[in-house]
Amino acid sequence: EAGVTQSPTHLIKTRGQQATLRCSPISGHTSVYWYQQALGLGLQFLLWYDEGEERNRGNFPPRFSGRQFPNYSSELNVNALELEDSALYLCASSFYRGRQPQHFGDGTRLSIL
Amino acid sequence: GESVGLHLPTLSVQEGDNSIINCAYSNSASDYFIWYKQESGKGPQFIIDIRSNMDKRQGQRVTVLLNKTVKHLSLQIAATQPGDSAVYFCAEMGPKETSGSRLTFGEGTQLTVNP
After folding, report:
1. Which CATH number fits domain B4-114: 2.60.40.10, 3.30.70.100, 1.10.287.180, 1.20.1250.20?
2. Contact: A103, B46; criterion CB under 8 Å
3. Is any Cβ of chain A less than 8 angstroms from the Cβ of B25?
4. pLDDT by residue (tens digit) across A84-110?
């Protein structure tokens, strides 16, 4: 069974540009989560999508947004990129029933020049 | 707010020894906990989970202990192997009403296994 897949693996942008990151969940999982792992800051929750709707949002500015498609895949969009957005962006998926483990992909490394 | 912290940032053990990684959490209403292992260049890998109605759960070579009285979580790895070298994170899930399914992660402990 394929795990969570993310693309691209690496992304290099300049300040002010926009970035789009993609995630395909494990087959059968309906929930997709996005986390940011910045150097020295650990993993921080960004967004949670389930059945196409945003269910919860972390403490990030509105320029971080996303969506979930009918096939449960997801996109994370970051507008007006800032240097501090440089980080590893991790996507996870789970079943949305009760307390379920979240399984992670290997992330997209976003570098802002 | 919610926070999860690890007592030790680094842990070095000899191959074959048992390892214990500790975690303190602050939200007494958290009802679900997960341990993850993250190797360099990879995403966190699920190890084991435990619900708040349990005190102990065992997996293959791993045991998680939950002490709700002092809000403490630990991961025990038996017969530690070089392949266990990684950063280990604990994560908590708060009540559905306020946190939904978001995970709050601890800072991570770097486990190094010496041959």
Report:
1. 2.60.40.10
2. yes
3. no
4. 999 999 999 999 767 899 999 999 999
